[in-house]
Amino acid sequence: MRKDKGYRISDETLFLQIRHGCGKSFDALFIKYYPVLWAYTRQFIEPEDGEEVVQDVMVWLWENRQRVAFETSLRNYLFRAVRNRCLSLIDRNELKRKVYHIVHEKMSSHFENPDFYDYEELTRRIEEALTRLPESYREAFELNRFHQLTYKEIAERLNVSPKTVDYRIQQALKQLRVELKDLLPILFLVL
Asked: In CATH, what number does 11-86 get?
């Protein structure tokens, strides 16, 4: 990628080079757009989530560079992709809140009944289920749920991408849901 003084490479040229696998062009695009895209996310979501959304969009752009087509400009495409990811995240979080309130309303009388669950039994069953998870799933899950690390922090610690962390945690949750289905109302509040 050539960048002389006074010469600015266009987004279209950058993307053409990216499409051909030029990592330096991708880095230049990332450096150019990351700050403004991240600032844009702040009107929708928390800053930490914004970092993750922008990184996800940029990783997705790189991984799908051969198939990406945009109608107006690369800049508009990136802003639209980031906005859509922010809105999806908001929808997911809103759904989680709604489900929590519904479960809490329906189950609150059960939670108040001391016979409903035995804390030691619950802890034992969760620990057993966690030990049956594949090591990589368990490690990512525990770092997120029990140590409150973000996907980005976990990715850095485990030397993997945030997408890999997301996949591992989703798989861990899926397996735990199946294994602990009879405890789901309680687990929803714990995990």
From this structure: 1.10.1740.10
